[in-house]
Amino acid sequence: MPIKIDRTITARKLVPKIERLFELSASKILSIEKTWKPADGTPVFTVKGRYTSRGWTEWTQGFQFGAAILQFDATGDEQFLEIGRRKTVELMASHVSHIGVHDHGFNNVSTYGNLLRLMREGKLPPNDREREFYELALKVSGAVQAARWTKLADGTGYIHSFNGPHSLFVDTIRSCRALAVAHQLGHVLMGEQDAKISLLQRVVEHAFNTARYNVYFGQGRDAYDVRGRTAHEAVFNVSNGVFRCPNSQQGYSPFSTWTRGLAWAVCGFAEELEFLTTVPAKAPEFRDRRHRESVETMLLQTALATADFYLANSCADGVPMWDTGAPNLGRLPANYLNKPSDPYNRWEPVDSSAAAIAAQGLVRLGNFLCDRGDGKHGALYRQAGLTVANTLFSEPFLSTDPKHQGLLLHSVYHRPNGWDHIAPGQKVPNGESSMWGDYHLRELALLLWRQARGEAYLTFFDYTKP
Question: pTM of the entire structure?
Fold first, then answer.
């Protein structure tokens, strides 16, 4: 296990670093708010420290405004609540009804969902009309996402990516939170002839098929079947619903592991485990107790496998290279995984955004296991997540330059397409930030800060309690 887990670090010990993080975060949110023009599109990643847009799909705007809401949650500074509230109302409606993407959990749970959560927690004054507005947005968003459905030969299905009905992305497991929230709010997707389609059923089937086709379990599926490895995309024949092959859009190859996709799986499956604990044991989506237990087992085994692979393939400080099979890794020192990551190496970039996403998943998986009485394994994953957090909350990953609009440095977007900025004198992308990296760093910090302060455990769900 290349990562060197710090067994002594705690959320409480990280408080000084978290406080500094949110101090830096404030000025960066305000800088983007001051300089960004909505007509230019959605900010995606930085070039020379300034946020720029990159048309592909509009999947990052929820992180932009969700960041301000998280900032308010952490600090109580109402100027950030005003930004998050106002911009959600002004600019997020099109994302609620966007039928062309698989990103509803990213955009809408980060905005409408966080606002509703704050109201339910009493951090916003009660307002029935405002609450109903957030709830309606979340219900519609979950149903729209669930309608992107491809049916497989065995009668189950999956939410297909923006590439089309043939495409199952590993990313979408975390975006399934949109369906989970909508289900918890009592919503269903209405189909032809008024068929009522359970959103929970679609969450379960999508998770099952993501585990089945995008995650490997070391069972000889192909020559590159290593337990916990993930494929970015699974490709199907939509005429008969049969799996054809793995693929990768943002990774190096279908048979290597793009580490941000891996991180989405680590975090997404851990969160779905937490969500499942809120679902009644006799929910009609489960045939019987054995079926319910098999679903939980599937989620847990997938979370464990992907977490183990992440830990084995990150550097000693918990930050991974952007892809485990990137072509120039052989030019790095033979023992590079046993050392702290080097964002400024000459051959291949690291991806700090993958680390921020995975760290949260590791903490959640560890907490879940501890709650089930498995303190030994739970402590291992939780301490691993805290170790990664400790790395990211410090330089050279934490951006301390007031002129740089990013918060988390050394994030990578799309290496194969060459979209990431390479500074003069550098050979690979480094020193830049992304909306998803910055958001997930803040979300990770908020999760740990609330724990350290004895506040309610941060989840994306459970909005039903006033």
Answer: 0.98
